[in-house]
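Title: [Solved] RNA polymerase sigma factor 3D structure

Original question kept below for reference.
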Amino acid sequence: MGTAKEGDVTAELIERARAGDGDAFRELTEPHRGELHVYCYRMLGSFQDAEDALQETLLAAWQGLAGFEGRASIRTWLYRIATNRCLNARRAASRRPAQQWNIPDVAPPEPTRLGGVVWLEPYPDALLESGPETRYERTESISLAFVTALQVLPPRQTAVLILRDVLGFPANEVAGMLDSTVDSVNSALKRARAGLERRRPAPAAATPSEDPIVARFARAYESGDLDALVALLTDDVFVSMPPMPLEYQGREVVARLFAGIFRAGRRFDLVPTWANGQPAFGAYLRAPTGVRHGVGLVVLTLTGDRISAMTRFDDVPLRWFSLPPSLPAAR
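Solution (posted by the thread starter after getting help):
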């Protein structure tokens, strides 16, 4: 609980912000900005959509501060606004559309299936802050598998599950955010948990050390060593490539996918990073000039001492990870 002194400071900032003091408003909202951005990302599955939702939230808070009555904390009030902005975005038809296969000189194998969450984007670990954890460990609650599973739940169920199980808001506060009742929130949470369990994979086995596996992957990928790469994969490895809807499951079909890529003479240099609590790489295609052009971001999911999933994104996220669009020719 905050002290009386903290409460007085908050009240003073609110009064100053209501009078048009932008610095006071930023001081009120800045402590919550990071966690609100991650919340919007979990709700929307898209870094860019989360940016838009956060900006809309802060603008609405600035414009609506006169109506803030103090019955809830500033943090809870901001989450109420963000929740409504995200629910509106989930209902909108302007989500990122699917793209066609765009890897030159490579004919893709027949996909196992077509994925529906083509707007999925990665989240840089560098932007993650320590925050509340309840039912889910932090790494699981930001993992690509978890965020993807959230996208196919009904929007209000998604909001309730994140607010209750991930962020730990009490049911009565969530009911207030959604203009609902505690019974309705509890019912939505029960359905959301059941829906999530049906869609997400089983928890990954403990990985003693990620470093050797990740290093072996990088060596195999950069050298185009198909056998070494395939040896690192689980039997049921899953590869997806948003915003392309093609999805591949199983070592055999994934081997055919990478055989086509390597056979076309495409060779890459990888720059390590972290996304969604998972090891990741910026992928740079070597050009005949020696310059290496950024073509995508690859995120790995590890299970035990194997790679159980690979998610290949396009080059758009590179800038969010402070990765350059290209690398100079190697000397």
